[in-house]
Amino acid sequence: MKALVYDGVETLGYRDVPDPVPAEGEQLIRVSAVGICGSDMHAYLGHDARRPAPLILGHEAAGTITGGPKDGTRVTVNPLVTCQTCAACKSGRENLCPDRQIISMHPREGAFAQFLAIPDRNLIDVPDDNPLRKAALAEPLAVSWHAVKIALQALHPDMDRDALVIGGGAIGLAAALALNAMGVRRVTIAEPQAARRKFLQTTCHQTVTEAASGPYPLIIDAVGYSATRAIASACAAPGGVIAHVGLGEDSGGLDVRRMTLQEITFIGCYTYTAEDFREAAQAIFDGRMGALDWTESRAMSDGFSAFQALHSGRIAAPKIILDPWS
Amino acid sequence: MKALVYDGVETLGYRDVPDPVPAEGEQLIRVSAVGICGSDMHAYLGHDARRPAPLILGHEAAGTITGGPKDGTRVTVNPLVTCQTCAACKSGRENLCPDRQIISMHPREGAFAQFLAIPDRNLIDVPDDNPLRKAALAEPLAVSWHAVKIALQALHPDMDRDALVIGGGAIGLAAALALNAMGVRRVTIAEPQAARRKFLQTTCHQTVTEAASGPYPLIIDAVGYSATRAIASACAAPGGVIAHVGLGEDSGGLDVRRMTLQEITFIGCYTYTAEDFREAAQAIFDGRMGALDWTESRAMSDGFSAFQALHSGRIAAPKIILDPWS
């Protein structure tokens, strides 16, 4: 099959590799659509030790089961593979499983490829009226869905729920959509890139600002750099909640003195539970996440140039979807 | 009256000052016992802009109402003076009141003095069988009670509740006692000072370690320096909770990458609600906080030397109580 392989810092190779062989309990998926994530970009830049070259990246996939009794079933893929037996898995917090794996992270190959092997339990059927290109958004939307859910759970019930989302990429935009879907109407996205700001306003109908001020009871940091954490801890209202999703920089930025004096809660958020993934997929399928018309499609054979364009900030759309068959 | 006045960096003066004059709704308290807090020490070292010299420090006070219909009533003092009308006060989170004041912070004089003026609503009656020296611990114990309460509320119900308390001063020890009082039996205190470790083990019957390792589902950082936050974020179990009480250093120390990948929650904690203060005082009065025999009493006239001894690490007891009348 054809695959887009991470070969080293800022180098991707589009070439023939052996087809994956499904293990017991796994299905072979013919991949139709696969998104480029910020974490793929971190890996491409050589910043992710969990993704050493050579490796097939990509974990936001939808496609069709190939072979076996479910042949032809259209599915979206939960890429988080967990043990199902530990205390975390048993309590429904699979994302905290000590043996968790994600496709596209060592040792599992990813989905920038024509075929993918993945446990059957990780698949969610896609209704006929939903294109697979849209279903491939289930993964990033689940990340945001999960973060918004735990942030809302942590927020004191007497507080307003006005929200600031820091970062207008796919995770930030999806967080705004998830907030809307959960009843939070007043959401502002802070995004420094002018072209993306315009795209978010016109195509996505979002309230956007270049520089945020506060106070906001609820903040989603969908970037995870020192600079964004500084904004988050400065703009959180007293008693407010910051949900932190990104892995941009390992430390720094938080104004801990202010967080202490104003009783601000900071919650690290990582991936999703199996339940949150199903809920986010369902929210796509029944239209609660909007038209989802803010993606841009590219041939996987042009994947390398898509990474280069993303890295140079030349793409306004928050998400690039690759087609492994063109 | 006699008072111990902060006159500038590392300088305290014991001298005559005018008696305070109670405003409407306030009582005049004859102070019998007043503890030295870590924040008094920050101020003494010139590190607290909220406490500019000259100022009477001290906010952990118990004494007797002087004059009026309640003359002679023994009371402990909630030093947090709030507006009672804002949204935070109305929802029972008085510690988030935007107009909050604390005695010993500009513009309110503190309790290192023979008399103190304080709103009547800030007073809690002390039962006859409780010495005022013990009742003066209500304030630091309320700080810890509040932090432990919100940490336990934030902890996922499926998780164990083994706890690490970082710092064996009064706030750390009180956090351990509050954890015990709320049913958490397995508590370890991490304390670097050998003499205090021995004191905590022998006098206070606590489990103590010099250097903590993890994982702990529940961590109370009762110090608030970069180094202690580094310990907290390294030792928290996946999905765990850190309650952060101290104001040692303004920023730094947190391993945000690990907190994100392991979904660790960090909660800034400041003072207490009025309800938490009452609960902590009641826990003292009915014996749930133990014998509280770990304080050391000094004459307020020797207060300056007590600060010097505390600063040099020569005092094993977690709390010094000053007597303004000797």
Please name the defining characteristics of this protein:
globular, homodimer, 2 domains, 6-stranded parallel sheet, 7-stranded mixed sheet, alpha/beta, 326 residues, Quinone Oxidoreductase, Chain A, domain 1, 10 helices, Rossmann fold
What does this structure look like?
Two copies of one chain form a homodimer. The first copy, chain A, is an alpha/beta fold and 326 residues long. Chain A folds into two domains: 2-137 and 292-323, Medium-chain alcohol dehydrogenases, catalytic domain (Quinone Oxidoreductase, Chain A, domain 1, Alpha-Beta Complex); 143-268, Rossmann fold, CATH 3.40.50.720. The first copy, chain A, has ten helices and 18 strands. Chain A has helices at residues 38-44, 87-90, 132-135, 138-154, 170-181, 194-202, 226-235, 256-261, 274-285, 303-311; strands at 2-8, 11-16, 26-35, 55-56, 60-65, 74-77, 80-81, 101-102, 115-119, 123-125, 163-166, 187-190, 207-209, 216-221, 236-244, 265-268, 295-299, 319-323. In chain A, strands 3, 5, 6, 9, 10, 17 and 18 form a seven-stranded mixed β-sheet that branches. Chain A has a six-stranded parallel β-sheet with strand order 13-12-11-14-15-16, sandwiched between helices. Chain A starts with a strand and ends with a strand. The mean pLDDT of chain A is 97. Chain A binds chain B through residues 87-88, 91, 93, 95-96, 98, 154, 156, 158, 224, 229, 238-239, 244-247, 249-270, and chain B through 87-88, 91, 93, 95-96, 98, 154, 156, 158, 224, 229, 238-239, 244-247, 249-270. Strand 16 of chain A pairs antiparallel with strand 16 (265-268) of chain B.
